[in-house]
Amino acid sequence: MSNAQYLWSAAMGLRTQVRPKVEDSAALGALDNGIRILTAVANALEPATGQIPAHFSAFPLADTDRQGGPAENAAAYRDTGAAIADAAGRLSSGAALSGLGDAIRWEKSLLDSAIARMDAVERALPPAVEADDQAIDPARLQAYLRRRPGCEGAILSAFRLIVGGRSRQTAIFSVSGADALPAHMVIQRGIPGQAGSAAFLSEIAQYRLLTQLHAAGMRVPRPVLVEEDPAWLDAPFLLVERVDGAPVQPDYWLPAESEQIVLGLAREMALLHSQPVESVGDGLRQARERYDVDGWRAELEQLAAQWEGAAHWPSVTMSAVIAWLRQNVDCLDDRRAIVHNDMVFHNILADQDRITAVLDWEQAAIGHPGEDLGYCYPVVIAVTDWSRFMDAYRAAGGADIPQRQIDYFALRAGLRLMHLVMHGGRDSFEKGLSDDILVASAGAHFTQRLLHRIAMILASVLERDA
Q1: Cα 49 to chain center, whole Å?
Q2: What is the pLDDT of residues 25-44, one digit of tens each?
Q3: Which of 194, 267, 421, 466 has the smallest CB count inside 10 Å?
Q4: CATH architecture of the domain with range 138-245
Q5: CB 129: neighbour CB atoms within 10 A?
Q6: What is residue 286's DSSP assignment?
């Protein structure tokens, strides 16, 4: 019996026998992420079980653990790693994509098997719950609100933290005795003691953007007030009116269940992209310095270098993606719009089949509308034809974006997100900057699933090219 089989058995036992008896939310979060790490490491030890094609079978065993952690490439087993590295190296050296089609399809088949094993363990697991040692204090928030005119008698109730992103903390609550405030609100606060990133909007910038988008008819929460002084709650915060509805899909990897919600996303995205950049986008960061082909090419080479310098093991898929992007970068143009940068279903509320709010605007910027379209491509095509989505997008005022650009941005989104997860999650754990189990899970588990998603997008693109 292999070491991998021991780990799979342990992960399955924890899920089926231990998890149902754990009631503490922080313990559940740690357990769920521990299970995810076990499955990621198990994939790194899994033998290929005879799946290696004849023309790759002569390669020796490979040390896929050379940098001390599980490979982002869940297909890189001991007996497949050398063949994968060879094929990836040939693509990186300029070999034609058409000549390595077998290798690309072979790696995807291994990734399909790896993710199927992970799914078997994780099925029915809810989204991870993370502990919060610096929770927002409702008593201090209530004291702050009572200092505002018309809110002297404000009483907070039903205060509840919402788990979510790593850069902001969120809670929902009700308020009475304050006619100047909505009865139900949401607070979003920065992480105390954590410096803001230039990649994220400040609370005041989000307030201004949401005010204008709400006035333009977008389904976003109505902003109520913003506080930049950290003295009140240890960090700046933003209050918005609470919107009816529930997250469309709390699991990042799963698509929506309703085609109507997917087509509703097209409407919201078109409305966002049609806002005047000069006024509504005033104060937003530029996603890049240049939008001509040379600027896009420079960005691509930076992303490629980041992958090649940080990956624990090569990937045929990633080398093929970079090669395809290099061949097609000249399809891009200098088109600019306000982009959300994470506009998929874990950030969208809906009531039945109607979108009620698009959330989490902290990554909004001035960029190319294809960035949002390419980012949502894999979860859209899991529900409906892409042509139907684009028909709805254009009908709501969106521009006619060529399919080649959509393909480019869909692949670019995977490459960019892989870097963000490796740099912001895995590296901070492996360098000893954090021992948080959620960070460890992001580096070991998220990257393997992301590579599989990229492989699926690449297969779709190459099929269209054939």
Answers
A1: 32
A2: 778 878 888 888 888 878 77
A3: 466
A4: 2-Layer Sandwich (3.30)
A5: 18
A6: B
